[in-house]
Amino acid sequence: MSLIQSQPLELPEQTAAVHMALYSSVINASDLFQRLVARDTSLQMALLNAETIMDPFQIMVAAHRAARAEQLGQLRTHNVHSELVFDLSPNNNIREALTRFGISSGSTHVLAVRVGGSQEQFAQEIAEIVEGRQEPIEQLSKYTNMETVRKYYKVPANLKSPEDVQHSVIGSMALKGHS
Amino acid sequence: MAELIQQGAEAKVFALSFYGRDAIAKERFPKTYRHPILDKKLTARRVVQEARCLFRCQQAGIDTPTVYFIDTNLNTIYMERIEGRTVKSFLIEHSGNPALVDDLAHKIGKALAALHGINIIHGDLTTSNLFIRDSNQSLVLIDFGLSYHSSLIEDKAVDLYVLERAFLSTHPNSEVMFEKIVQVYTKKSRDGKQIFAKLEDVTVKEPCHK
Predict the structure, then answer these.
(1) TM spans, by residue (chain B) (predicted)?
(2) Helix H or strand E segment including B98
(3) Between residues A156 and B174, which one has the greater pLDDT?
(4) Is A95 on the interface with B (CB under 8 A)?
(5) Contact A170 B68 (CB under 8 A)
(6) Is the model's pLDDT at B159 over the cut of 50?
(7) Is the CATH code 3.30.2380.10 the one for domain A5-175?
(8) Residue A61: its chain B contacts at CB < 8 A?
(9) In angstroms, what separates the C-alpha of B47 from chain A's closest C-alpha?
(10) Does B29 touch chain A (CB under 8 A)?
(11) Residue A175 touches chain B, beta carbons under 8 Å
(12) pLDDT category, A14, cuts 50, 70, 90?
C-alpha cells in the first residue's frame, strides 16, 4: 500500500490531483539540491523542507494558488512546482522562498509534492529519486519545527495555540502580495 | 457543490468545502452602472481590502474567519465558514437571561475595543455580523465588506453608533446591554473616553439627519 496522499485540486475546470510523499532520514538531499539548482527537468515535483510545513492543508493552499496562477498564465516562477514553493512563502522574495521552504543540502526530512499525473507514476518516480524512509503523511506534524514556522511566517507572539498559529500561517500565505 | 447562501447588494456568498474545510466563497460582482475599467479596479481593491482587514484582525488575536485564498480574477475570497450562530439569534433566544446577556456584552465590548485598537473600522456592525463560535463560545466578527483603516475618533464612534441602531431596532429592551458594551469598550479602549463622548455627540446629532 502506498503512503502517498493524493487530493484533487478544487479549481474551476481543473481537478488534477496533488500527491504528497513524506520522507525522513533522507541521505541524498545534497544531490537532490544540486539537481534542483541545475534545473534538472526529470524532477517534476516540489521538494520541501518538511520542518516548515504544519499539515497537508498548508500544501493544498499553496498548490491551489500555484495551479490557479498556471491556469491563468500568471506564474511568477518557472513552473507549477517552483511556484508552489514560492506560494508557501508569505512574501514576494523568490530566492528566499526557495531556500526556506525548498530542501537544502542538509535536509533530512523531505516532503515531495507533485501536481498532476497519477499516484502510481509519482510513487514509481519518487522511489528512485529520494533515498530515505517513506512515512505516512500523518507523521508530518512530528517533523514540524514550530520555531522555524513562527519565524518564517512572522506569527505574532500573542498567537499561541497551534490552531491560531496555523490560521496565521494560512492567512499570511493567502495575503501574500496583497498587503 | 457550492450552495448560494446569501445574495447581497455587493456580493454573492456560497457555502462550500475548501480542501476538506467548511468554507465560504464571497464573490463580488460587477456594478454595471460604473465604467467597466474603473469598476474592475474598484472591485479588485475592495476584495483585497476586505481580506486585508480580516487578516489584520486575525494577527491581532481578534477572532475572525481565516482567509484561505483570494482569487483576484474572480473577485472572490475563500474563507473559513464559522460553525456557530449569530448574536442576533442568540439574543432572540436568551434575552431573558441577564447572566448570559451580560457575558456576551462583555465579549462584544472587548472585541470592538481590540478592533478599533488596531484602527480598523468594521463599517457594518449588526447583530447578524457578530457570531458565537460553537466550539469555544468565542465572539467572531464577520463580513468586513465595508471595513477600512482609520484612526479617527469619529469613525470609531460612528461604527459604535451603527451597532447601537442595529441593537435598538432588532432587539427590544436592549438598551442596558448596549450600555454595558459601551462601558466595557470604554474601559478597554485606548481612546475610550473620547470615542464615548463622540458617540454621545453623534447620537444627539441624529434627529437633524432625518
Answers:
(1) none
(2) helix B98-117
(3) A156
(4) no
(5) yes
(6) yes
(7) yes
(8) 19, 68-69
(9) 10
(10) no
(11) yes
(12) confident
Q: A76 to chain B: which residues are within 8 Å by CB?
A: none
Q: Does domain B84-209 have CATH number 1.10.540.10?
A: no
Label each residue of chain A as H, E or C. CCCCEEEECCECCECCEEEEEEEECCCCHHHHHHHHHCCCCCCCCEEEEHHHCCCHHHHHHHHHHHHHHHHCCCCCCCCHHHHHHHHHCCCCCHHHHHHHHECCCCCCCEEEEEECCCHHHHHHHHHHHCCCEEECHHHHHHHCCHHHHHHHCCCCCCCCCHHHHHHHHHHHHHHCCCC
Residues in chain A with CB shorter than 8 Å from the CB of B59 are: 156, 159, 168, 171
**Choice among A12-16, A108-112, B86-90, B188-192 with the minimum mean pLDDT:** A12-16
Q: What does the pLDDT read at residue B160? A: 95
Pick from B68, B80, B81 the residue to mutate for testing the A interface (most A CBs within 10 Å): B68
Query: Strands B76-80 and B21-28, how do they pair?
Result: antiparallel
Annotation: CATH topology of B3-80: Phosphorylase Kinase; domain 1 (3.30.200)
Cell numbers representing residue A83 in the block: 511556484
**And the C-alpha cell for A153?**
511566517
Examine the pLDDT at B180 and tell me if it is beyond 60. Answer: yes
Q: Which residues of B are catalytic?
A: 124
The structural domains of chain A, with segments of one domain joined by +, span 5-175
| Of A113-127, B147-161, B175-189, B190-204, the least confident | B190-204
Question: Domain residue spans in chain B?
Answer: 3-80, 84-209
